[in-house]
C-alpha cells in the first residue's frame, strides 16, 4: 500500500511550525517499512537535526500493573502546568502480538491527549525491537524539532525494551509498587541497576506506610551497590498518580540529576555515546540482516546452529565457514 | 616469527593423555594470531569437542586488592584435596599495557602451580577483549579435554572483562571486602547483578565482625533486587584465604547452585545459550573486522563519526551510506 507523502520541505516546515498533523505524518513516515519512505525519512531527520537536542528525554519503565500510563498522564499534566510542552512516545516490542496497547494508551491518557501542548504517539506496530528503537529515536528527534521540551518514552514491554530505551534517554525512571518482594518478579535482573531514579507508585490512602517503608528499603539497598560512573545514586521517591502527591518531587530529582550531570560535563557526553552507539547498532543491524538473508547462509545456518548448541561443532570454526560463504561472491 | 607446530593428531593425543607440556603448547597455538595457527587451532578444538563439557566452570572477579590470586590459590588447594583436577585461566584485557600480571600470578600461586593436578595459565598477552575471550573459551575446552574437573577463570581487568567471563562460565563469583561502601568504588555498575555468589574475602582476625556485618547487609540487599530467571538468589559467604575458613562453604554454595540449575534443566540451557552467543559474537567480530578494514570505510568513517557524535549527521543515514560502500564492490 503506497501512501501519498509530502515533500521533504513540506515536512520540515510543518514540523518546525509545530503543526501537529504534519508531526504525526512525519512519525508515520519514519515508522514506515517501505524503502522509498525510509530514504525520505533519513533525509528528513537529517534536515531537522539542527533543531534537535533541546528536550529532556525521560524513559519510564515498570511491570504491567504498576500504573505507567496513569503516571504519565498525571506527571505530564504537572509539566504542562509548568509551561512545558510534553511528548509521549511508546516502545512496545510486543504490540504486534497483543495489539491492545494503542487503544489502552489513548483511553488512559485522554486528558493529556486533549491538551494542545501535549502530543501522544502510541507504539509503532511491531517489527523487530532494534527497528522499533531506531524509529523511536527518530520520532524523538522530530518531536524535539517541533518544540517539545520533555519527551517521555514509555516501555510497554516486559524486560525486552529497557536496554533500548536506556540507550536513548537522559534519565531512566523505574516505577515500582510497595510490597514485600512479589512486585519484583516481573522485573528483569539488571533493570534496577539501569535506573537513575525509582518512584514507588500508588502511594495513596492505606498504601502510604508501605510505600514509605519500600522507599527506605530501596534507598538503603541502593547504597550497598556500586554508584554509576557519574557518582549519581538513584533517587527513590514515593508518588501517587491519583492524588498527584510526590510527582513534583520526582521532577525535582530529575532536575537535580540534570544539574549533577551538566556540572560534570556528563550530560552531553552521555548523548555523544548514545549517538555513536546508535550508529554502531545501525551498521550491525544492516550487516546482520544482509548476512541472514544471504541464500548460502540460510541454507547452512539452521543445521550448524543446532550442532553448535549441542556442542558438536566449534563455534569459531563455523563462524569462519559462514563468513567465508558470505564474502565469497 | 614462525614456531614449529605439532600435527593435529599429536596435539589431540597429548591433550587426551593429560600431557601438561602438550596442553600448554595447544593453548599457545589457540592464543596465536598467525592465520595458519588459527586454522589448526579451530580444527584442534573441533576434534577435542567430544571430550569437553565435563567440568564446572567458575568465573572469579573483584577489584584489584580484593585478593583474587590468593583466594584462587587457597580455593584451588581445597579442590585438589577433594581429589579434583583444577585449571586456572586468566582473562586480562589490560595485560598488553602492564605486562605485570603474568609474573604476579606465578609468584602468588606458586603452591598451586607446583601441584601436578593443577594447571595455571597466565593471561594471553593483550589483543582485543573479544579475541581474548574467544581464546579463553577455546583454552577452557582444551583443559576439559585434558581431564580437568574445575576451571577457574580469573578476570584481572577492572570492569571490562566481566561480561565476557560471565558469558563463558557456569558460576560467577564476586569477591568483595568488608567496609562501608568504599570497596564499591572500583566495581562497575551491573557487576553485582551478574554474580551467582558473593564472597566477602579477608574475613580473618579483626576483620571477622566487619565481614559478618557486610554479609548480612548484602544478603538483605540482594533480596530487595529481582532474582535471576532461574529463581536463584546469589549466596553471600565470608571467607579467608589466609585461614581457609569459609572456603568449603563457598564450594558448597557452588554445588547447591549446580543442583538448583540441573534440577530445572537450566545448567545445560545456559551452556546452549553460551555456545550460540559465542557463535554470534564470532560472526559479528569477523564481519565487523572486515567492515572496519575496508578502505572506503576507513576513508569515510572518522569524519562522519565525529559529525554523528556532535549531532550534525543522522546515524541511520550514515549507516546506510557506509554499508552501501561496503557492499558495492
UniProtKB/TrEMBL annotation, chains A, B:
Note the SUPFAM superfamilies from the entry: P-loop containing nucleoside triphosphate hydrolases
State a single Pfam family of this protein.
MeaB
Keyword Transport listed? The answer is: no
Single GO molecular-function term? GTP binding
Indicate the enzyme's highest-level EC class: hydrolase
- What is this enzyme's EC? 3.6.5.-
Keyword 4Fe-4S among record annotations: no
Classification via InterPro entries: GTPase_ArgK, P-loop_NTPase
Annotated CDD domains: MMAA-like
Q: What cellular component GO annotations does this protein have?
A: cytoplasm
Key words, A-Z: Hydrolase
Family, similarity comment = Belongs to the SIMIBI class G3E GTPase family. ArgK/MeaB subfamily.
**NCBIfam families listed in its UniProt record:** lao, PRK09435.1
Q: State the name under which the record lists this protein.
A: Methylmalonyl Co-A mutase-associated GTPase MeaB
Which gene underlies this protein? meaB
Amino acid at each position: 500500500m503506497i501512501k501519498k507523502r509530502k515533500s521533504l520541505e513540506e515536512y520540515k516546515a510543518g514540523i518546525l511550525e509545530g503543526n501537529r498533523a504534519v508531526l504525526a505524518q512525519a512519525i508515520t513516515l519514519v515508522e514506515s517499512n517501505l524503502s522509498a519512505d525510509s530514504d525520505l525519512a533519513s533525509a528528513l531527520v537529517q534536515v531537522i537535526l539542527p533543531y534537535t537536542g533541546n528536550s529532556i528525554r525521560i524513559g519510564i519503565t515498570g511491570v504491567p500493573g504498576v500504573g505507567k500510563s496513569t503516571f504519565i498522564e498525571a506527571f505530564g499534566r504537572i509539566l504542562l502546568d509548568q509551561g512545558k510542552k510534553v511528548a509521549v512516545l511508546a516502545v512496545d516490542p510486543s504490540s504486534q502480538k497483543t495489539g491492545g496497547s494503542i487503544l489502552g494508551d489513548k483511553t488512559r491518557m485522554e486528558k493529556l491527549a486533549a491538551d494542545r501542548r501535549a502530543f501522544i504517539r502510541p507504539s509503532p506496530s511491531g517489527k523487530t525491537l532494534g527497528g522499533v528503537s531506531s524509529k523511536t529515536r527518530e520520532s524523538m528527534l522530530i518531536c524535539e524539532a517541533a518544540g517539545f521540551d520533555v519527551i517521555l518514552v514509555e516501555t510497554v514491554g516486559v524486560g525486552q525494551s529497557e536496554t533500548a530505551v536506556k540507550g536513548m534517554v537522559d534519565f531512566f525512571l523505574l516505577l515500582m509498587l510497595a510490597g514485600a518482594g512479589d512486585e519484583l518478579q516481573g522485573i528483569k535482573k539488571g533493570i534496577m541497576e539501569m535506573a537513575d531514579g525509582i518512584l514507588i507508585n500508588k502511594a495513596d490512602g492505606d498504601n502510604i506506610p508501605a510505600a514509605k517503608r519500600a522507599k527506605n528499603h530501596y534507598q538503603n539497598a541502593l547504597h550497598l551497590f556500586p554508584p554509576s560512573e557519574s557518582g549519581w545514586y538513584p533517587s527513590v521517591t514515593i508518588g501517587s498518580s491519583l492524588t498527584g502527591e510526590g510527582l513534583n518531587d520526582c521532577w525535582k530529582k530529575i532536575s537535580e540529576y540534570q544539574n549533577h550531570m551538566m556540572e560534570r560535563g556528563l550530560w552531553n557526553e552521555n548523548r555523544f555515546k548514545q549517538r555513536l552507539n546508535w550508529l554502531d547498532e545501525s551498521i550491525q543491524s544492516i550487516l546482520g540482516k544482509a548476512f541472514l538473508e544471504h541464500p548460502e547462509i540460510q541454507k547452512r545456518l539452521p543445521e550448524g546452529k543446532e550442532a553448535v548448541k549441542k556442542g558438536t561443532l566449534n563455534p569459531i570454526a563455523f563462524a569462519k565457514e559462514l563468513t567465508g560463504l558470505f564474502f565469497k561472491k
